[in-house]
Amino acid sequence: MKKLIVITGASSGFGMELAKEFGKEGYPMLLLAREVEPMEALNIESAICKKVDVTNREEFESAVREAEEKYGKADLIVNNAGIMLLGDLANQDPVEWKKMLDVNVLGVMNGMQIVMEDMKERRTGTIINLSSIAGLKAFPNHAAYCASKYGVTGLTEVVRGELSSYNVRVLSICPGAVSTGLLGHTTNQSIIDGYNEWKESIGATNIKANDIAKTIKYAYDLPQAVSLREIIITDTMQDA
Ligand code: NDP
Hints:
Blueprint: E1 4-8, H1 13-24, E2 29-33, H2 37-40, E3 47-51, H3 57-71, E4 74-79, H4 94-122, E5 126-130, H5 143-164, E6 169-175, H6 189-202, H7 209-221, E7 230-233
Parallel strand pairs: 1-2, 1-4, 2-3, 4-5, 5-6, 6-7
Bound molecules: NADPH dihydro-nicotinamide-adenine-dinucleotide phosphate (NDP).
NADPH dihydro-nicotinamide-adenine-dinucleotide phosphate binds next to helix 1 and helix 4.
């Protein structure tokens, strides 16, 4: 029998593509995001869709426990929910830094803590965190976003080591630029324009959200003994 998969940020982009990929194979799923309608519109019979803000630990945990009542303990969580508010540190509103760190770092830590004790006890399970290539190297106007994604890369590696002896996989995936709703959160239009111009000028526009989803699913489908610890995936034409 297929085991429960939890995907955060399934209302758009990578998370939505991932829900479709697992949905095709009838996996029981818990799909989470603040906007529930786009997830329900996928019409995936085996999916429970819940309006959850990953920064709200209580509602996040109760959604997971409720799904576990129905489908059994979560075997995979993809901590994918994230926001990108690009800006120049010199003048970016600190409210944006806090929002990003709350969702991108604390949201991921919430997701990990909610499932990890059960996984340790069962000596199996997989946690996949969405970091970014911006969690490994610097990009202009990415100071706060890089801070959040370097955070994800670091904490994933720490917990990977801690859970290795329990046979629990903890992986990070670090995508390059892929067109999704992500850039739409940035409030500075000239930064958005500059980012799009850079992608188009180098021709790095062909990789799709579904390519990331398939890669995440590939990592999960490998035997439990095989851990793709850190996956860097970009458009072939991306130069940085
Ligand atoms: P999208 O903006 O398309 O999707 C982001 C998802 O996160 C949405 O479903 C959104 O749903 C959800 N989300 C945001 N905030 C919250 C919250 N507080 N609680 C619950 N859900 C939330 O972006 P992507 O698919 O591109 O991004 C997915 C992940 O991949 C992010 O972590 C991002 O940083 C990372 N990434 C993306 C790259 C890219 O180029 N696209 C590159 C590298 C990494 P809702 O608004 O309904 O809550």
